[in-house]
Design a protein that fits this description.
Elements: H1 5-14, E1 15-17, H2 50-84, H3 86-93, H4 108-140, H5 148-179, H6 184-211, E2 214-216, H7 221-232, E3 240-243, E4 254-257, E5 264-268, H8 269-272, H9 277-292, H10 295-324, H11 337-374, H12 377-390, H13 399-405, H14 411-433
Parallel strand pairs: 3-5
Antiparallel strand pairs: 1-4, 2-3, 4-5
Helix pairs in contact: 1-5, 1-6, 2-4, 2-11, 4-5, 5-6, 6-10, 7-9, 9-11, 9-12, 10-11, 12-14
The structure holds zinc ion.
Length: about 425
């Protein structure tokens, strides 16, 4: 829902939203909208705009290639760092930094300096790509409303946040590597779970306001309907907020975020402005579905479990590297950092389809919930159709790309599900009448 990579990464961890994030999307496939049976009811405005979809396909392809270019660039840089021995050279060059050791083996100042060097290099090298994919392309396609200055301000804030969080994580990781060479990965996994839960709790009150303005939804039809829905489902809603997405984008979205006391439903002003009360209600019902199914805690647990697997693989790889290369000064040697980053990156890439598959399943379950609780199939279908065109989302991506990269079912699949639901509903009505 945001324009910068940092924000996206940040928000993706702590919220689960309604529409797919169009960060990495796919080359074209011929749209196949043929309906085997006539539709149960006439659905107004529920036809995808052919020109918008062609543009969406083009945009998706550009973003896919940019994503792949970014990935290749990272792989080349980190590969070069590892193969040239530059990782050891950097460690030796940072020998001027005091070797302060709070306990044996942990060198927080040198670890911090090593991390900063990598972080700054990665930022500078990645900046042109992130400017092009985060600012130029969205502007060219008319879905960004941000000024260059606003984009840079967001980028700077995101960068600063990442710097603080990642620095703390790296220091903690190297403290564990020094303190418990055998079991550090288990401790790190447990710590990660706790920190993620804490950040998920703080995200809507502490992190999101750094970028967006959240305003409690004023009394009115939308709020009344949302509260009635929650009431019928016996769900406690801690707040319904509007978020000023329009300051950055023309795209619409809604999400649930927060954990425990900060749990809330957040609706983009770009959705509130242009959608009918029925369409908004069905979107809110989808978000309530996430709440009813405990999706945020489940997503946090799944992500943490995957991360624990990654850390266990890091342990194996580091063990092998240390045995093979005497230049490494033990696990907590800052020179192991590029190898850790490379291993976690590769592991994340390999397990991405798994994480995305789980997310798509969770999203589909929320769609089912939305239709079960509201029965508003027409509103669901028209909202999906309008979202595809408004958000420049490719409705029918290649199934392979959807399998690999989509954290929501494609809009085409969600539309097909809506139509199938409508048919089932019509059959039920027909049976009841006969
Ligand atoms: Zn959702």
């Amino acid at each position: 829902m945001s324009n910068t990579a940092h924000q996206r990464a940040l928000l993706a961890r702590f919220a689960t939203d309604f529409a797919a994030d169009e960060t990495l999307a796919p080359p074209p496939l011929e749209a196949e909208i043929a309906e085997p049976e006539p539709r149960a009811a006439a659905i107004p405005d529920a036809v995808l705009d052919v020109d918008r979809q062609a543009q969406a396909r083009h945009y998706a392809r550009q973003q896919l290639w940019l994503g792949l270019a970014g990935l290749a660039l990272s792989a080349i840089l980190i590969g070069a760092l590892l193969l040239s021995g530059l990782n050891f050279w950097l460690r030796d060059a940072l020998g001027v930094v005091p070797a302060w050791q709070p306990f044996a083996g942990w060198l927080p100042l040198r670890v911090g300096a090593y991390f900063l060097a990598l972080f700054i290099a990665a930022f500078i090298i990645g900046l042109p790509l992130s400017w092009y994919s985060g600012f130029i392309l969205p502007h060219r396609n008319g879905i960004s409303t941000q000024s260059p200055r606003g984009w840079l301000a967001d980028e700077a804030k995101g960068l600063l946040l990442s710097l603080v969080f990642e620095l703390l994580a790296v220091e903690g990781l190297y403290a564990l590597l020094a303190a418990s060479p055998r079991w550090w990965w288990l401790w790190a996994g447990a710590a990660l779970l706790c920190v993620t839960a804490l950040l998920a709790n703080l995200a809507p009150v502490l992190l999101l306001p750094i970028f967006y303005k959240l305003t409690p939804l004023p009394d009115g039809e939308v709020k009344a309907r949302a509260l009635a829905l929650a009431d019928r489902a016996h769900l406690r809603v801690h707040g319904i907020y509007s978020i000023n997405m329009s300051a950055r984008t023309t795209a619409a979205n809604a999400m649930v975020m927060g954990l425990g006391s900060t749990r809330r439903i957040v609706i983009g002003d770009t959705l509130l402005d242009r959608y009918t009360p029925n369409e908004i209600e069905v979107v809110v019902a989808h978000e309530l579905g996430h709440q009813a199914h405990w999706d945020i805690p489940q997503l946090i647990l799944t992500q943490s479990a995957i991360m624990l697997g990654g850390l266990a693989v890091v342990q194996l790889i580091l063990g092998a590297a240390l045995r093979a290369m005497p230049q490494y000064d033990g696990l907590a040697d800052p020179a192991t950092m590029p190898l850790i980053v490379a291993t976690l990156g590769a592991f994340g890439l390999v397990t991405l389809p798994l994480a995305n598959g789980f997310s798509r399943w969770v999203e589909h379950r929320a769609d089912v919930y939305a239709l079960e609780t509201t029965g508003m199939t027409d509103a669901f279908i028209s909202a999906m159709t309008r979202l595809a065109d408004q958000n420049l989302a490719e409705a029918y991506p290649s199934p392979l790309i959807e399998f690999l990269l989509y954290n929501h079912p494609s809009i085409g699949r969600r539309l097909a599900f809506g139509h199938e639901w409508a048919r089932r509903q019509a059959r039920r009505v027909a049976r009841a009448a006969s």
